[in-house]
Design brief:
The complex is a heterodimer of chains A (164) and B (272). By secondary structure, chain A is α+β, with helices and mostly antiparallel strands. Helices cover 15% and strands 43% of the residues of chain A. In chain A, the strands form two sheets. Chain A has a five-stranded mixed beta sheet, with no helix packed on it. Classes of the chains: A alpha+beta (164), B alpha+beta (272). Chain B: It comes from Rheinheimera baltica.
Amino acid sequence: MSDLTKQSAKKNAAADIVLQWVTFKLQEETYGINVMQVQEVLRYTEIAPVPGSPDYVLGIINLRGNVVTVIDTRSRFGLEPAEVTDNSRIVIIEAEKQVIGILVDSVAEVVYLKSSEIDTAPNVGTDESARFIQGVSNREGELLILVDLNKLLSDEEWDEITSI
Amino acid sequence: MSNLIASQKVMKHYLSALLTEDAEADAVVQEEQKKQQLNALLAQAVVSAPEEKKVEVKPPVVLPTAVATETDALATLKAKFAAAEQSQHLQQRDVPVAERLTLAPPNETPKPSIAAVSPVEKDYRQGKFQALFFDVAGLKVAVPLKELGGIHQIAKINSLIGKPDWFKGVMLYREQKINIVDTARWVMPEKYDEDFQQKLNYQYVIMLGNSNWGLCCETLVNTFVLEQDDVKWREAEGKRPWMAGLIKKHMCVLLDVDAMIDLLNRGLDISA
């Protein structure tokens, strides 16, 4: 194998990096978020509402002395609200240099995906919630929808969260 | 023309930069030379008693080199300018007059055009052809068999957020991700309400050509062989591009698959 071919093979192998994704469920759909952004997963705990906060904010929780804002993920995704169950979890994530919690129906597992296994979502729809979707992947016959957490909120909304 | 204007602007900036930089550099060089010569002169001057000796003051030295330098610099500038001007002329000549004179209005946005495949080019526009008929909420629709990508039974559809209402979601079929269209909603958005939705019983997905788009349908009716005269072909361009024509005997629509794929890819429905 020539040097050029070896280099090319290395590049290709390097390009198909494997990423880990924490998967969670919302209304029977499975979503994935980059594991590097996940700090921890908590059982559902009482969320104190904050008067005057935006409608996508459920409230705040006390996490070892720190105040963490919890986002209503269903609301952000345009889904109908649902009752909290024993499987509900608050996923503590770091995005846009902020630590927030997102309430999900359940957390499933951590999956490994190669970048070649990720396809772009169909480019239709101009709804703002379409920007969350980073890609989709076929995982053992199930569709995994990969979410870009940094786009969960707009810049103004991130700023607003800071002030809560 | 806009490229020409842009290139003209670039040329102007280039030329002005040339003139500014060279002139400044030459002025600095001349200044330095004058200083050196002045210092040399001062060094040569002899100080003596005014009564006894006459101080020989040499007449100011004419600086032929400075003048020569200036002349050279100017000549260089002029040469560069001429070369740039010539190249500009060449550029202008390269662009045909008609193109240069034709100017698109600045605010005009090009109208989106549906992918237009000449009707004559389509296989089914010549001789007999077969079409598959299927039913959606009481509406019969036909698709040319040659443009049918496949038929699948409806399986689990994964909904995606932020998509149009008629976009039901993504269905996984082996290695393929099929974009599922709620056909009734796409075709009859004005009738689509909760009652209507509840009555729907989608069972199959009709694949459009080689695309990843699939139309939901309730029942598969049959396939029929059609003659060219059996169809009232759409002739009015721009109106209902998704419709190839109307099948007279069955009083139903024959889909123009390519146009439909184009509309779906652009996120448009029947109202587009």
